[in-house]
């Protein structure tokens, strides 16, 4: 799922801006799920590991969509 952000990041960096809302929401969603997995009494590692890439890729996509890097 998160691999689809890579072409958007490349487009954002080359000057073609994408919509920043969807990656921002994905970043927030993955952050909340990761926190949930870590805060459970018995850690839920599959949830944590599945959402960590979304935190970084969602943040990178959002940042490149709002700033002018191209």
Automatic annotation (TrEMBL):
Output the Gene Ontology cellular-component terms.
Answer: membrane
The record lists the organism as Companilactobacillus paralimentarius DSM 13238 = JCM 10415
Origin, by domain of life?
Bacteria
Q: Which Gene3D superfamilies match?
A: 1.20.1280.290
Q: Which UniProt keywords apply?
A: Membrane, Transmembrane, Transmembrane helix
Q: Matching InterPro entries, A to Z? A: SWEET_rpt
Transmembrane regions listed in the UniProt entry:
20-39, 46-67
Q: What is this protein called?
A: Integral membrane protein
